[in-house]
């Protein structure tokens, strides 16, 4: 049996599975499918035609360790999920996050507070997006990608499986580190190869490529392919691979 607050509003033709908890002031649009054992926390807004699979937790409040450098006790806006999204099994979406329309979030992914995700983006299985991140439209983040706090990915960014990003050059030592936290920036059309590692504050400029297994210690110039440990510019992106040649954008 599910527990649905009398203060929740659930749209027409929306189905709710067994053993769900839907708290006060939740709003769910028409034609949604809510799986079994789903928890939707107070104030969450869910659009029309959304599917949320079993054991997902939507609107979760963050936990803060006493010595956390990036998680602070602040009042968060309710979680918001746009129309026609697909949210996989055991996904966790925190309060204070906003997901656009037509987004797919695959099984076991985690989206922290103060994160925004643009329309039509794909978040793959097991992807972790930390707090204070912005993900653009039409991006694709593949399996087990880790996006560190304070990062920004612009539109049409591709991130291959197992990519790791970081924001702390001091590795958790000395008070100096608190002055220098900085995530990564991937500009429009940037691509990160499988297993690449991006160090704190580095920028991947428009249409640049970081090759598989590379360690990016300096910014990747626009339209360049960088590779190696540490990564160095190897050649230019072929014209036929450039974003403006794909017919996806004006």
Structure description:
This protein has 250 residues and is mostly beta strands. It folds into two domains: 1-62 and 77-131, UDP N-Acetylglucosamine Acyltransferase, domain 1 (3 Solenoid), CATH 2.160.10.10; 138-250, Hexapeptide repeat proteins (UDP N-Acetylglucosamine Acyltransferase, domain 1, 3 Solenoid). The protein is built from no helices and 33 strands. It has a twelve-stranded mixed β-sheet with strand order 3-6-9-12-15-18-21-24-27-30-32-33, with no helix packed on it. Strands 2-5-8-11-14-17-20-23-26-29 form a ten-stranded parallel β-sheet, with no helix packed on it. An eight-stranded parallel β-sheet has the order 1-4-7-10-13-16-19-22, with no helix packed on it. A hairpin with a 4-residue loop joins strand 32 (224-227) and strand 33. It is globular and about 60 Å long.
What features would you highlight for this structure?
UDP N-Acetylglucosamine Acyltransferase, domain 1, mainly beta, 250 residues, 0% helix, ten-stranded parallel beta sheet
Alpha carbon gap, first and last residue = 50 Å
- The global form is globular
Unreliable residue runs? none
Number of helices: 0
Strand portion, in percent? 25-35%
Q: What is the CA-based Rg, rounded? A: 19 Å
Question: What is the second-level CATH architecture of the largest domain?
Answer: 3 Solenoid
Taking strands numbered 1, 2, ... along the chain, how are they ordered across the largest sheet?
3-6-9-12-15-18-21-24-27-30-32-33
CATH superfamily of the largest domain: Hexapeptide repeat proteins
């Amino acid at each position: 049996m599910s527990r649905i607050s009398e203060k929740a509003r659930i749209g027409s033709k929306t189905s709710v599975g067994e053993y769900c908890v839907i708290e006060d002031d939740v709003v769910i649009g028409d034609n949604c499918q809510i799986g079994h054992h789903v928890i939707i926390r107070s104030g969450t807004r869910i659009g029309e035609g959304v599917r949320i699979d079993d054991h997902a937790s939507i609107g979760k409040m963050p936990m803060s360790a006493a010595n956390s450098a990036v998680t602070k006790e602040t009042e968060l806006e309710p979680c918001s999920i746009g129309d026609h999204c697909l949210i996989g099994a055991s996904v966790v979406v925190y309060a204070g996050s906003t997901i656009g329309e037509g987004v797919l979030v695959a099984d076991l992914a985690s989206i922290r507070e103060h994160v925004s995700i643009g329309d039509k983006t794909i978040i793959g299985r097991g992807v972790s997006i930390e707090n204070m991140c912005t993900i653009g439209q039409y991006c694709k983040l593949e399996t087990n990608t880790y996006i560190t706090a304070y990062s920004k990915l612009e539109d049409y960014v591709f991130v291959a499986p197992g990519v790791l990003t970081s924001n702390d050059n001091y590795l958790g030592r000395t008070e100096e580190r608190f002055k220098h936290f900085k995530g990564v920036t991937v500009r429009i059309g940037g691509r990160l190869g499988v297993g690449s590692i991006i160090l704190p504050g580095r920028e991947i400029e428009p249409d640049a490529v970081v090759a598989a297994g590379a360690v990016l210690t300096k910014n990747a110039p626009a339209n360049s392919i960088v590779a190696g440990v540490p990564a160095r510019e190897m050649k230019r992106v072929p014209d036929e691979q450039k974003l403006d040649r794909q017919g996806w954008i004006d």
